[in-house]
Amino acid sequence: MKVHESHTARFTVVGNHLAQHRSLSLTAIGLATHIQSLPEGSPVDIRTLARKFEEGRDRIATAYRELEVYGYIERRRERTGAGTIVSRTISYNHPEATHARRERVGPTTSPRAAAAPVPAPPAPAPPAPLPVAAPLAPAADPAPVPVPPEGPRRAAPPLPRPDALDLGRQRIAAELLADLRRDAPALLLAERDVRRLAPGVAAWLERGAAPDAVRRTLTADLPSDLRHPAGLLAYRLTELLPPPLPATPTAAAVPRPDPLQNCDTCDRAYRAPEPGDCPGCLAADPASRAAA
């Protein structure tokens, strides 16, 4: 049973595509709802949110990454007029609709910054009182959201990152991701997705994976109805990460053979550390050695 009252102030509209998302964790859904409810310009960095809530920085950071995979959050690094670099978080209350609009009419104005509140619709007139509680209609089913084909649904783990920064390797990783659409048109990525996924590919290259091997892994057995290529690639880069190459073992020292010696009895050559009799003469009985 549900008891619904009309809101006339201080409320936020949240779509079922978020509230009933089949792949996001409850922490991620709650984080997206909280960010959408805040006034524009409110601080929503992980440190600030960790001071407000009990989930802690690790769980909030994991939820942030989930929302980035499914397009509800975008984090950018921008240069201000004073020349400093700042992080800007952008919240999308309906990422699929935003993406469809951009494909239809091209980019227009910039999206709202993080924590921008969703415009509130006009307050509906209060319903007439009912003598008894009327049964509530069931909520409409949300639109199905594709789930990565490998493994069970769970919170998206962090993307792998290389141990050492190598600009050449990072450039190769970005070019590989941007070029995937030549092999699979469904893997057409936005520029921001290429920047976000490039460290994951660089981690594979750092572990000795050849670029062609990475390409084959990312393009193999793609689902026919792929709608979130960046999410699928992030899943594969994380779950199929190869182990580091083992260290090359040091070659064991090869023992040198004993030098050649001439037997003092039969004058045959044999190997021994010191001059003397050969093994054959040493094994002969004393009488035979005396006869010789």
What does this protein structure show overall?
The structure is a single chain. This protein has 292 residues and is mainly alpha-helical. Among the domains are: 90 residues, Winged helix-like DNA-binding domain superfamily/Winged helix DNA-binding domain (Arc Repressor Mutant, subunit A, Orthogonal Bundle); 73 residues, no CATH class. The protein is 38% helix and 7% strand. The protein is built from 11 helices and 4 strands; from the N terminus they run ααααββαααααββαα. It has a two-stranded antiparallel ribbon. Strands 3-4 form a two-stranded antiparallel sheet. Helix 3 packs across helix 4, helix 6 packs across helix 7 and helix 7 runs parallel beside helix 9. It is elongated, with a radius of gyration of 34 Å. About 7% of the residues have low confidence.
Task: Provide a compact summary of the structure.
With 292 residues, this protein is mainly α. The chain has helices spanning 16-19, 26-37, 46-52, 56-69, 95-105, 167-183, 191-206, 211-219, 229-239, 279-283, 286-291, and strands spanning 73-79, 85-91, 260-262, 269-271. Among the domains are: 16-105, Winged helix-like DNA-binding domain superfamily/Winged helix DNA-binding domain (Arc Repressor Mutant, subunit A); 167-239, no CATH class.
Structural class of the secondary elements? mainly alpha
Radius of gyration: 34 Å
Please describe the biggest sheet, giving its number of strands, its sense, and whether it closes into a barrel: 2 strands, antiparallel
Task: Quote the beta fraction.
Answer: 5-15%
Please trace the helix and strand order, writing H or E for each element: HHHHEEHHHHHEEHH
Mean pLDDT across residues: 79
- The tally of helices reads 11
Output the strand order for the largest sheet: 1-2
Gap between N and C termini, in Å? 116 Å
- Number-wise, the strands total 4
Q: Which blocks of ≥5 consecutive residues have pLDDT under 50?
A: 108-121, 132-137
Instruction: Assign the CATH topology of the domain at 16-105.
Output: Arc Repressor Mutant, subunit A
| Amount of helix | 25-40%
